[in-house]
Amino acid sequence: MTVSTQEMSNYNYMNCIRRSVWNEKASNPKLIEMELKSHKATINENASTIFSKLVENEANTKISMKCFKSQPEITYQMRSLIFDFIMCCHIRLKLSTPTLFLSFNIIDRYCSKIIVKSSTYQLLGLCSLWLASKYTDKKQKIPSLPTLQSLCCDQYTKEQFKEMELHICQSLNWTMCHGPSLDSFLDILIRSRTFQNENTDCVAMKLGALILSQLVCFNLSITFNHSPSSIALACLFITKFSLLSSRFNTFMNFETMVSNEKLDPQLVTLMKTILESINESEIPSSFRLRYYSNDVQHPVMKCLFSYKASWTEHLSRNAVYSTLLSPLVPDFNQEASPSSKTQQMDSTKWMQIPPTPSTTPSTPTFSKATKPAASLSHNGTGLSFRRHSKRDSSLMDIDFFEEETIQYAKKGRVGEC
After folding, report:
1. Would you list the DSSP string of 171-208?
2. What is each CA distance from 73 to 68, 84, 119, 218, in whole angstroms?
3. What CA–CA distance (Å, rounded) separates 103 from 375?
4. Which H or E run contains 14?
5. pTM
6. Per-residue pLDDT of the chain (417 residues; tens, 9 = 90+)
7. Element (H, E) at 132
8. How many helices (H) and strands (E) does the chain have?
9. How far, CA to CA in Å, does 86 sit from each of 82, 182, 286, 399?
10. What is the DSSP string of 265-288?
11. How do strand 292-293 and strand 296-297 relate by DSSP bridges?
12. HSE-up of 180 (CA within 13 Å, CB side)?
């Protein structure tokens, strides 16, 4: 059965009509508002079940730092460049936020199992973005193969994209989209009572936590050594304290407020690590493309970096205060150290040789008539020590000390463990 060109044109025309009607209905503000209310009600009702499932998937889709470091051609700098490139493509294609985090997760999980060549690392990144968009984005927003080829300047063919997509699915046992992303934990955790109060803006807090989470994804050690749930929780607390500090115009240290929040010490350590890792002068170029407008930062991003600056200043001030105050605080538990005179008397008492003004207690003197003994016993015991006869300091050569080293070396004292 053959289809004529007129029928094909009719099919295309009807398809365009259906799409226009669908887009018009989907853009209805009342419909969008009803969908959001239904979504929030469903999430609040099943939040505990969803969170437990996410944690279970998190344990089953761990990434290995050891396997990534064993990559012969992939380095930390290459990973940062590919992530920056993927984020720029994500912005250009106007994809959803979960697509970006899921693509990062697919790249790291694939590199934890398969050795990747540097020539195919970009292909892996684009295919991961392609797979993630198929899972989270609308059908009309999924990039086509010609679009993906244009993003990499036609460096790879359509067949290479298809082969890499199939290889990713087979290598990850068709669970490439089961790894929970950071934004999925943020959606659940931000609805808790800890972050839902009168002093916090949930929209600004969600955006700030997303910015921090995206910055953390570029850090290799934090991403591989900590779970996505703990990273999301730490980013939410940092954003919360930064917004409160900006609102009340005072620095609110999260370390001093641990007792009120009853935070885990490991979580506090992770928050410190995240704050130390972010640096305004070293942010990737994709962040300037998304969160800057005419070289002006987004207010939430500016709030985060100002909180980082206040926290760094607070640490340096405490370090200076501790340095200045440490000599002024007496240690009553420590016994008073004996004076130099007492130490001198103790040493001379042990050696049983009276000190002279011209010599120290450790170098006894002898008269010219007497010769020094080779060894001296103390109180009849077998304890002995070696003594040299007094020499004129002007006549001492380097061989005098070398002699001593050679003698000790022969006795096995030098280099002994």
Report:
1. HTTT-TT-SPPHHHHHHHHTTSTTT-STT--HHHHHHH
2. 10, 18, 9, 18
3. 79
4. helix 5-26
5. 0.69
6. 455 666 666 777 787 888 788 777 777 888 888 888 887 788 778 888 888 888 888 888 888 888 888 899 999 999 999 999 999 999 999 999 999 999 999 999 999 999 999 999 999 999 999 999 999 998 889 999 999 999 999 999 999 999 999 999 999 989 888 888 888 898 888 887 777 776 677 888 899 999 999 999 999 999 999 999 999 999 999 998 898 888 888 888 777 765 555 677 888 889 889 998 888 888 898 998 888 887 788 888 889 988 888 888 888 877 766 665 555 444 445 444 455 444 444 444 434 444 444 444 444 444 444 444 444 444 444 444 444 444 444 444 444 344 444 344 344 444 443
7. helix 121-136
8. 19, 2
9. 6, 17, 9, 69
10. HHHHHHHHHHHHH--GGG--HHHH
11. antiparallel
12. 24
CA distance linking residue 371 with residue 229, whole number of Å: 80
DSSP SS3 for 417: coil
Say which residues have a Cβ less than 8 Å from residue 22's Cβ, sequence separation at least 6: none
Q: Which residues contact 207 (CB under 8 A, 6 or more apart)?
A: 298, 300
